[in-house]
Specification:
281 residues; Rossmann fold; 31% helix; globular; disordered N terminus
Length: 281
C-alpha cells in the first residue's frame, strides 16, 4: 500500500520555499510597505499654500483668506524648482488681498509643448471642477513661462480672462532656439521649423484676438536673452493688427534681470485686478 506523501516540505526545502514566496510578494519602495500611498510632492512657496500632485507633477495653490462663490485665480509659470520665488511675493500678496488665488504646475522645460499644455488642462480641470475656482483664468508668464502659458491659451481662448507677462518668451526661434527646443517636442530642429506655426505663440494669436483676450507685458528695451522686438514687440504688432487689446510697458535701460520694477509693477497688478474683477460670478 502506498502512503500519501506529506504536503509539508522537509526542513531542507524551507529556505527554497521561503525564497519563492518572497519573490512573489508585491514590490514596494525600499523601506515602505507594498501598496503604500506615494508621498505628496514638496515645494517651497513664497507664501503659505497647498502643494499637491496632478498626473504625477507638483502643483500648488495659494488661496486668499476670503473668497466668494467662485475664486478668481492666476496661473503662474514657470513652476520649476525655486519658482515662483521670493520676487513674486509682492504681487502675490496684492492678488490675495484682492481675493485672487495663485496656482501653478511644474511642466518641466516643456517650452510650450503638447505634453505641457495637457498638464495645464489637467490643473485647470482640477481647480474648476473639484474646487471653487472660476471658469476663466488669468495667465502670468515670467520669461519662458510666456511660451508655456501662451501656447496653452491659443488652444483655450474661451478659458482665458487675460495674460500678463514679465519679459515673456513668445517666440521659440528667439529663445531657446529651435535646436534647443526640438527635443522637448520630440522633433529634429528642421522638423520643428517646418511645424513652427503650430507651436509658436507669435504665430497663434488669432484665437485670442477673436476672443478679445486682453494682454499686458512689461519688458525691458535692453533684454539680450529674450530680445524685446523678437518677442513681446512682435506679439504687440501682430496682436494689434488682429484687433486684440494689449498694454505694453517698456522700462528704458532694463534687461533680463531681477530689477525690482519688473516684480513690483503696479501697472501689472492693476491689470490683473481689473481683468479678474468679474470672475467671481
Amino acid at each position: 500500500m502506498r502512503t500519501a506523501r506529506s504536503l509539508i516540505p522537509s526542513a531542507r526545502l524551507w529556505p527554497l520555499v521561503s525564497l519563492v514566496l518572497w519573490l512573489r510578494l508585491p514590490a514596494g519602495e525600499p523601506g515602505k510597505p507594498a501598496g503604500a500611498a506615494p508621498e505628496a510632492p514638496k515645494k517651497t512657496l513664497p507664501l503659505p499654500g497647498e502643494v499637491f500632485s496632478v498626473r504625477g507633477h507638483a502643483a500648488f495653490v495659494i488661496v486668499p483668506p476670503k473668497s466668494g462663490a467662485k475664486i478668481p485665480w492666476v496661473l503662474y509659470a514657470p513652476t520649476l524648482p525655486g519658482l515662483p520665488g521670493p520676487e513674486e511675493r509682492w504681487m502675490f500678496e496684492r492678488f490675495l488681498s484682492a481675493g485672487i488665488a495663485v496656482a501653478g504646475i511644474d511642466v518641466e522645460e516643456s517650452y510650450g509643448n503638447a505634453a505641457g499644455r495637457a498638464l495645464y488642462s489637467a490643473l485647470f480641470a482640477e481647480l474648476t471642477t473639484r474646487r471653487k475656482f472660476a471658469s476663466k483664468v488669468m495667465l502670468l508668464g515670467r520669461s519662458r513661462g510666456g511660451l508655456m502659458t501662451l501656447s496653452w491659451a491659443a488652444e483655450n481662448p474661451d478659458k482665458v480672462a487675460g495674460f500678463a507677462g514679465i519679459y515673456p518668451v513668445c517666440n521659440l526661434a528667439s529663445y531657446p532656439g529651435l535646436t534647443n527646443a526640438a527635443p522637448a517636442y520630440g522633433l529634429k530642429p528642421a522638423d520643428l521649423e517646418a511645424q513652427l506655426t503650430r507651436h509658436n505663440p507669435v504665430d497663434r494669436l488669432e484665437p485670442l484676438a477673436k476672443a478679445r483676450v486682453p494682454l499686458f507685458v512689461i519688458h525691458g528695451d535692453q533684454d539680450r536673452l529674450v530680445p524685446l522686438e523678437a518677442n513681446s514687440g512682435l506679439v504687440r504688432s501682430r496682436y494689434q493688427a488682429l484687433g486684440g487689446p494689449m498694454d505694453w510697458v517698456v522700462p528704458a535701460g532694463q534687461g533680463h534681470s531681477m530689477w525690482t520694477g519688473f516684480f513690483q509693477s503696479q501697472e501689472l497688478v492693476d491689470f490683473v485686478l481689473r481683468t479678474c474683477r468679474d470672475l467671481r460670478d
